[in-house]
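Retro notes - structure team

What went well: the batch runner handled both jobs without manual restarts.
What didn't: labels got mixed up in the shared folder, which is why I'm recording both outputs here explicitly, each with its sequence directly above its tokens.

Job 1
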Amino acid sequence: MREQPRAMRRAQTCALAMAALLGASRAEAGGLFFSDRGVRPMGRGGAFVAGADDLGAIYYNPAGILEAGNQVLVDASAMVFHSRYTRVARVRQYDPNTGEPSGQAWDRTFPSVNGSSQIVPIPALAISNSFGIDKAMFALGAYSPYAAGPRYPETVAGQANPGRYMLLNMDGSALITPGVWAAYAPLPWLSVGLGFQMLVGKYKTVTMMTTCLPDRFICAAEQQDFDSTTQLSVGPIFAPGGNAGVILKPSEQWRIGASFQLPFHIDSDATVRVRLPSTAYFDNAWQQGDKLRVKMTFPAILRLGVEARELLPRTRTELAWVYERWSSHDRITVSPQDIYLRDVELFPPQYKVGDVAVPRNFKDTWSLRWGLEHWEKLGDGYQIDLRMGVMYEKSAIPSPYLTTLTLDLDKVIVGLGTSVHLNKTWRVDLLYARVFGFSRKVSTDEARFGMINPVRSTPADYPDYVNAGKYEASAHLLGLGLAVNYM
């Protein structure tokens, strides 16, 4: 076999090492918050800031737990998620003798890839008690985000999945936020609340990386025997945070609410496993060490709402605005802990992998929400509540960085819900909501999510970006909840 140039061998070896790490760089979990949460709140379109008056308030506005009284709340929702990605790639013709581009290029459209999520309950559990303290309430609880968790097949139409370099699945991911909260009413028209939370759990992804260089001397672009499966597990995650809220009641008919959630700063251990490519260049290669350190930030959130009560008989309606500071998620830092690649063909016996900082460049986003509740007495202590709501939310992800892993689109969510009060103690909640994502096209000129070819003396003239194409996503939310007020 003809010996490869030293620089090419070095780049090929480092490509495999960096493939493992840049898999970790995508641990942010796009689509993690594909919808806001809560059976009753989402029946109101997520407009539950000024009107928060049960233990759903631990998430939306902790000042509202004062009106929950001594209560136990249990709810769970299932997200039936569907996405569709149709990749478009820029194909260039290269001179077979020099490897230089000939100047001929065109766009190629691949078969569409359908993604779906496992249907599992997304829970919340909370309990509150005043402990005999007048005008005060305390709560203990935990909730999970409404995460899509998409998974994609390895093959499509008999060929390798064209989106395999972004995501294959998130199986095994589990995040939950436990916390403690307290609320107090220093004045009849003012309630304040404060909470301490902790984001805990694990986040897992499986992605396909490539070890083929853009030089194309030893392989073709996206050649399958140079693909390397990377499995990343971030965690256990322990990220402290907190939230605070206030509710003003200037009159019996009007309520004004505001809350603020602190960002979660994640600084967590991680492990990475790599299935080496099947090409002969890696027949004797192996990975030594699998420990990483991953750092990233989830955003601070500001919520504002105004609710009107009894402007119409037995009816309340709220208009809310939510701002999420996703610009704080500007990069992910990945620090390997003594990871080496050994015995790669025609390369020194070991190569130590260094730190990586990956730009994300997310942007701040906002949503506008409206919700309505109406109730009727049915006699014998029974009451039925009917609710509806709608939310419009902007995406936090610029088109150049949109992928099937971080799949966040502009969206409209329409929620419908009902509650049946069996008596003054027991309430059963039901939810159906539909998430309509607005499809987005990322052109081959604006795409900036690159294949893994990290070690080069100068950047490639024509980088291989793999996230161009059309993105579509939608979801159904089905929820069931139970609230019990006890003495």
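Job 2
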Amino acid sequence: MDFGVFSLMGHREADKSSSQVLQEAIEQTRLAEDLGFGMAWFAEHHFSNYCICPSPLMMVAHCAAVTKKIRLATGVIILPLYSPARLLSELAIVDALSEGRLVIGIGSGYQPYEFDRFGVDLATSKEMMREFADILDLAFTQDFFEYKGKYYTVPSTHISARFVNGFPQMWIGGDSEETYRLAARKGYAPIFSGRTEGVDGLVRTRKRCEEAFRAEGVDPSRMPIGMLRPVCVTHDKQAARQFAENVRYQLRLAGALRRREEIMEGTIIVDRPLAQDPDVDIILNTLPIGPPDVVAERLAGEIRALQPEHMSIYFQLGGVPQSVALKSMELLMGEVKPRIERALGPLSKIGIGFPAKRAPRVAPASAAE
């Protein structure tokens, strides 16, 4: 397994410019490459300060020009909000710009606030994602393809740009049986966060993934998985507590947007307690937050139990200062990772191994005409 850095690009402070938010994500990506992280992820959300980045592909394209070897991932593309005709070509072009370093993360979305403004029904999002996944296969396994489904129709089309090294790694985000079963059918790797849960909660999620894979007739022992975790490595107790409070803040915003209960003060979503609001002390005592020895012990426990292929990390959430995020990245690779490897052995030996190229999977004949 390897570590990655996840840029949510939230905007908690009203006086912080969009440019500064994006430049901080770019700075983290460049540092991640220097430190030896395997991947940099870029989020996608729309119309709120929860995340100001509407296009992870634009971030990948930019960061491809300022890095050389780190893989660059979409975290995640919300497929129902895209036209297949445009997205297919953009994926291949961005892969070419990055010289084959693109990693494709997809999802169905969950925020009604976004879907309403795109004129898309959130209730149909998973069906739309399934059709889009079939279109992806057809578009890059044939010179010309066509598709006729319930939500998408594509006449005979050739995607002129092609992937540099064959189909990129495909990851899928979201915690639902439909999502995990699609992953099993398509050969995608599921990635999930566990929110503020500890090892037991993460293991329960992994078991749900395994059950979905079995239901699709796929051996779950061949299931690569990814984890998305908030991590703060710091010797400063105040900084640790501030990070935990920002984790709770981000969860509050996500919960409000999920339930269509967001309240705006100007352009900023109001930070309101959830019905089951996590306590900051519980977050501090559960998540990998604190000095290197504490973080190493907690991460080692999660890695031992989950055996992930990849762990992507939020170093910056809400109003966490950039200086804290950058220092945390340095400490993770300089002091935490060596401790984990002393406990578990080389991280490169953990996980089942992600295939370098995904085998083509063409849509069923009934879906393509």
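One thing worth noting from job 2: The CA atoms of residues 26 and 63 lie 7 Å apart.
We'll revisit the folder naming next retro.
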